[in-house]
Amino acid sequence: MAGTESTTTPPKADVPDLAGLEAGLDALDTVPAGRRTPLRETLARKVLPPVSAVALVLVVWQVLVWARVAPEYKLPSPSAVWDELSTAWLEGTLLDYVWTSVSRGLLGFLLALVIGTPLGLLVARVRFVRAAIGPILSGLQSLPSVAWVPPAVIWLGLNDRMMYAVILLGAVPSIANGLVSGIDQIPPLFLRAGRTLGATGLRESWHIVLPGALPGYLAGLKQGWAFSWRSLMAAEIIASSPDLGVGLGQLLENGRNNSSMAQVFLAILLILIVGIAIDLLIFSPLERRVLRGRGLLVSR
Amino acid sequence: MTTTTAESAGDTTAVTHAARVAHVSKSFPVPGAPGGQQLVLDDITLDVAPGEFVTLLGASGCGKSTLLNLVAGLDAPSAGTIGTAGRPALMFQEHALFPWLTAGRNIELALRLRGVPKAERRGEAERLLELVRLKDAHGKRVHELSGGMRQRVALARALAQDSRLLLMDEPFAALDAITRDVLHDELTRIWQETGVSVLFVTHNVREAVKLAQRVVLLSSRPGRIARTWTVGIPQPRRIEDSAVAELSAEITEELRGEIRRHGRD
Ligand SMILES: Nc1ncnc2c1ncn2[C@@H]1O[C@H](COP(=O)(O)OP(=O)(O)O)[C@@H](O)[C@H]1O
Ligand SMILES: [Mg+2]
User: Fold this and answer.
1) Is the CB of B40 inside a 6 Å radius of any atom of ligand 1?
2) Does the distance separating the beta carbons of B49 and A8 come in below 8 Å?
3) Which residue, of A41, A143, B75, B183, has the greatest Cβ tally within 10 A?
4) Domains in chain A, please, with CATH?
5) A197 to chain B: which residues are within 8 Å by CB?
6) Which residues contact A117 (CB under 8 A, 6 or more apart)?
7) pTM
8) What SS3 state is found at B155?
9) Tens of pLDDT, residues B27-55
10) Domains in chain B: ranges and CATH
11) A157 phi and psi, to 5 degrees?
C-alpha cells in the first residue's frame, strides 16, 4: 500500500478506549508508595543494635578492669570516667569544652564549604584548571592534615586563625573533590537533555550540573566534616595555649599532663560522640532526603 | 490544518520547512579506519515540511541518532548544511527526566528556560500534563512513574519547548508492546492537535509505517537515503491493519536487502 501522493492533512484519530486503556496500564505499572515504618519497628531495627553494641563494650571494659589486666592509671574504670563527666557537668565546664570545639569545627567547616564549592565547580568545569590543580587537590586529600599544624603555628601563631587554617586545609580538598566526582558522575544524557532545553553556561551549572552532582557533593561534605573535625582535634592537642580556651583536644592533652587517664578517656569519648552526633543529626538526614527523593535509597 | 497551526506558532517569516538537511555528511575520527575517519552519514538531503510526520528508518548503527543529533544542533556536520525553524525539541530512548525534580517541575524547568514568566508556568505545565493524560502526575517523582508514564512526561517536557520541530530518537523502543501501541496512538493524537512537525527515528518497520506520512529508509555504512515511501493509509491506523502490514512487508524486504549487501563484502 505505498501511496504515491502524500497526505498532508491527517484525518482525525478517534480511539475512544485509549484513555481507559492507558489508565489501566498506568495503574498496573506504578510502584506503590512505600509506607512509613512505625516507631516500634524503627526502634527495634535502628536503635537496639547500636545500644546493644555499646552495652557489650561497657561490660567487656568493666570485666577487664575487674580482672586487673592493667593498673588503674592505664585503664580507668567506667565509673571513674563517669565521675569525671559528672564533675565537669556540675562545675559547668563540660558544655564549654564541647562548645569551644564544636563552634570552631562548624565555623571552619562553613568556611571550607564557601571556598571548596566554587573551587570544585571550577576544577570540574574548566579544563585548564582541572589539569593544573586537579591532581594536587586529590593528592592533598591523602595528606594527613596534622602535617599542617607546625607550619600553621609558625606562620599564624598560637591562635584561632591557625586552627581555622588547619581545618580549611583538611576540609577544602574533600569538599571540592566530592563536588568534582559528583559532577563527573552526572549521566551525559542529563547534560544533553539540558542543552536541548536551552540550559547553557551559568544556567546549565545552576539547573543541571549542581543538582545532578548533589549526591556526590553531599558525600564530599560528609567527608569534609570528618576531616575538619579530625584536623581540629589534632591542632588542639598539639597547639595548646592559655588564650585558646579549653576545647576537647586541650582537655585530652591536659588529662595526659595531669596523668588523669579518666580525663583522657572522657575527652576521647566526647570527641567520638560529637563526631557521630553531627553526622547523625545533619549529614545523614540530608543525604537520605536527597537519595530518597531520587528513588536511589533501597530500604533494607 | 496542520500547516496553519505550525505557522501560527510564532514566527512572522514564512516557514516553508521545519527542517532542511542539505548534502550533509558526517565522519568520526576512528583510529583503525582508512584515513583515520569513519564516514557515518553520506550526502543526506531531507526536508521536513511544517506539520509533517517523517520517520527515519534503518538498521542499528546506521547513523540515525547521529543525524538526529546534527539536526538538534548537539553536533556539527562534517559537510553540508542544516536549517531548522528555531531550536528543535528532542526526546530520547531513555526518558532523560531530571530525577531531582517532580514530573511537573521537569516541565516547568523547560518552560522557565524558554522564558515563560513564573506566574504562567504552573498552569501551562498542568495543561501539558493533561495533554498526555497525566493530570495527577504533577507532584510525582520520576521514579514513582511507570516507563510509559515517564515517556509521556518526557513528551510533555519536549512540547513545553513550544518548538515547531519535535525530534524523537527511538522514544518507545524500551517499552513493552502494549504500552508502545498506546503511546503511538497518543503521539498521533497530539501531533494532530498541536500541528508540530515530527522527525521520528526507529528501527521498527511497523512503528515507522503506523506513525508516518513519509518513511525514509537509511542504508548502513555509510548512511545514505536508500528509499522514501509516502504513506497514504488514513489515520487512525492500527498496527495489525492489513494495509500497514503490507507496506511493512515491502519496506522490510528492502531493509533486509540493504543489510544483506554488507554480508557479501
Ligand atoms: N561520537 C562518535 N565517535 C565515533 N563514532 C561514532 C560516534 N557516534 C556514533 N558513532 C558511530 O556512528 C555509527 C552510527 O551510530 P548511531 O548514529 O548511534 O546509529 P543508530 O542510532 O542508527 O543506531 C556507529 O557505527 C557508531 O559507532
Ligand atoms: Mg540510535
Assistant:
1) yes
2) yes
3) B183
4) 108-293 (1.10.3720.10)
5) 109-110, 113-114, 157, 161
6) A175, A176, A179, A217
7) 0.79
8) helix
9) 988 887 777 888 889 999 999 999 999 99
10) 2-88+164-264 (3.40.50.300), 97-162 (no CATH)
11) 85, 175
Neighbours of A295 (CB within 10 A): 14
Residues forming beta bridges with residue B230, ordered by sequence position: A3, B214
Q: How far apart are CA B32 and CA B40, in angstroms?
A: 15
Rounded to whole angstroms, the Cα distance separating B100 from B98 reads: 6
B contact test, residue of A1, A217, A218, A291 with most B CBs within 10 A? A1
Strand partners of residue B37? B29
CB pair distance less than 8 Å for B98 and A208: yes
A27/chain B closest Cα distance in angstroms: 9
Q: Is B61 in the pocket of ligand 1 (CB under 6 A)?
A: yes
Per DSSP, B169 falls in state: E
Measured CA to CA, the distance from residue A47 to residue A53 in angstroms comes to 10
Judge contact between A249 and A232, C-beta under 8 A. Answer: yes
Task: Report how far residue A267's alpha carbon sits from residue A248's, in angstroms, rounded to the nearest whole number.
Answer: 6
Does the beta carbon of B223 sit less than 6 angstroms from any atom of ligand 1?
Answer: no
Q: How many angstroms separate the alpha carbon of residue B39 from the centre of ligand 1?
A: 10
What does the pLDDT profile of chain A (300 residues) look like in tens digits? 444 444 444 444 445 577 888 888 887 777 666 667 778 888 888 888 889 999 999 999 999 988 888 888 888 888 888 998 899 889 888 888 899 999 999 999 999 999 999 999 999 988 999 999 988 988 888 888 888 888 988 998 888 888 999 999 989 999 999 999 999 999 999 999 999 998 888 888 889 999 999 988 998 999 899 988 988 998 898 887 777 788 899 889 888 888 889 999 999 999 999 988 998 899 888 988 888 888 877 654
Predicted-assembly ipTM surpassing the 0.90 threshold: no
Determine which of B16, B75, B112, B113 to mutate to test the interface with A (most A C-beta atoms within 10 Å).
B113
Residue whose CA is at the smallest distance from ligand 1 atom 27: B61
Contact A179, A217 (CB under 8 A): yes
Cα of B98 vs centre of ligand 1, distance in Å, is: 25
Do A196 and B87 count as a contact with CB atoms less than 8 A apart? Answer: yes
Residues of B in contact with A12 (CB under 8 A): 192, 235
Place of cell 531548522: B84
Cα-Cα-Cα-Cα torsion B65, B69, B71, B74, nearest 10 degrees, comes to: 180
Summarize pLDDT for B126-153 with one digit per residue, the tens: 999 988 888 888 999 998 888 888 999 9
